[in-house]
Automatic annotation (TrEMBL):
GO biological process, one term: formation of cytoplasmic translation initiation complex
Residue spans of the WD repeats: 6-47, 48-89, 281-311
Gene giving rise to this polypeptide: EIF3I
Name of the protein this chain belongs to: Eukaryotic translation initiation factor 3 subunit I
Main localisation: cytoplasm
Subunit: Component of the eukaryotic translation initiation factor 3 (eIF-3) complex, which is composed of 13 subunits: EIF3A, EIF3B, EIF3C, EIF3D, EIF3E, EIF3F, EIF3G, EIF3H, EIF3I, EIF3J, EIF3K, EIF3L and EIF3M.
Function summary: Component of the eukaryotic translation initiation factor 3 (eIF-3) complex, which is involved in protein synthesis of a specialized repertoire of mRNAs and, together with other initiation factors, stimulates binding of mRNA and methionyl-tRNAi to the 40S ribosome. The eIF-3 complex specifically targets and initiates translation of a subset of mRNAs involved in cell proliferation.
Keyword Protein biosynthesis: yes
SMART domains recorded: WD40
UniProt feature coiled coil, ranges: none
């Protein structure tokens, strides 16, 4: 089947996210706009307008009521998913790099960059308390002085946040006390992306050290490693198969010096248990910045440096495929 091409951004895609049912796909890019699409046919449902800088991250809550975006314009914004109305605007001292709703949708977290003399902070707001929003005062703010956070996700039950840092380290921060519950360092370079499995028991990390790794969410035990020849920008775990998909390529600034063929801009599929690569999907004219599986596991999407989001539906053979060990 031909992939569905979503053309709604003028600059490179920074993150894509499905809602829980998978009928909507949110995309953000370096062009100030957050888009929402129907994932089944690629029709654009609408945009969330208001940011004045590159939008780095997007998340949507459990019942697809609210959408959260974080941007380089030093703000994190909460939107009404249906109407596109801005519900809250949280100002920060530096760019917002990652954001997310916890399981209940009541608590949001976002991390800010270390820049312009400001530290990197991980902030927590409770949306049930309008006072926190109006005063712009998080109930918990964790300073990360050593290494800035480059990616973060909520752990199971909303008890902690798993953060990946510039130096390849993971920290589990408690959402109640703010203390570091566990640490792990399996990567040698910056962690570009963290995505959890559907049941939140595992997460996969994509790193500049050319690998993606599978971890246990609670214990941070390292389970599997998937190796490539290029930096990995993003990786996702299939909800129904023992598969992971990875996207990457070289740094965006080095792309012009290589041809697309050598540039390796394919999405790559690995078997989660055997760590074997079994498939590649071409298509993007530049590095892939983010990948995501549809919650039903029957399709996946990738967003690239070329500003396109591509939705690929798997052929029937994919579901019968067995890797011979």
């Amino acid at each position: 089947m031909k992939p569905i091409l979503l053309q709604g951004h003028e600059r490179s895609i920074t993150q894509i996210k499905y809602n829980r049912e998978g009928d909507l796909l949110f995309s953000v890019a370096k062009d100030t706009v957050a888009n929402v699409w129907y994932s089944v046919n690629g029709e654009r449902l609408g945009t969330y307008n208001g940011h004045t800088g590159a939008v780095w991250c997007v998340d949507c809550d459990w019942d697809t009521k609210n959408v959260l975006t974080g941007s380089a314009d030093n703000s994190c914004r909460l939107w009404d998913c249906e109407t596109g109305k801005q519900l809250a605007l949280l100002h920060t001292n530096s760019a917002v790099r990652t954001c997310g709703f916890d399981f209940s949708g009541n608590i949001i977290m976002f991390s800010t960059d270390k820049q312009m003399g400001y530290q990197c902070y991980l902030n927590f707001f409770d949306l049930r308390d309008p006072q926190q929003i109006s005063d712009n005062q998080p109930y918990l703010s964790i300073p990360c002085s050593e290494q800035k956070i480059t990616s973060a996700v909520w752990g199971p039950l909303g008890e902690f946040v798993i953060a990946g840092h510039e130096n390849g380290e993971f920290n589990q921060f408690s959402a109640k006390s703010g203390e570091v519950l566990k640490k792990a360092k399996e990567h040698t370079k910056q962690i570009n992306d963290i995505q959890t499995s559907l049941d939140l028991t595992m997460f996969i990390s994509a790193s500049k050290d050319n690998t993606a790794k599978l971890f246990d969410c609670t214990s941070l035990d390292h389970i599997k490693t998937f190796k490539t020849e290029r930096p990995v920008n993003s990786a996702a775990i299939s909800p129904i198969m023992d598969h992971v998909v990875m996207g990457g390529g070289q740094e965006a600034m080095e792309v012009t010096t290589t041809s697309t063929r050598i540039g390796k801009f394919e999405a790559r599929f690995f078997h989660a248990a055997y760590e074997e690569e079994f498939g590649r999907v071409k298509g993007h004219f530049g590095p892939i910045n983010c990948v995501a599986f549809h919650p039903d596991g029957k399709s996946y999407s990738s967003g690239g440096e070329d500003g396109y989001v591509r939705i690929h539906y798997f052929d029937p053979q994919y579901f019968d495929f067995e890797l011979e060990a």
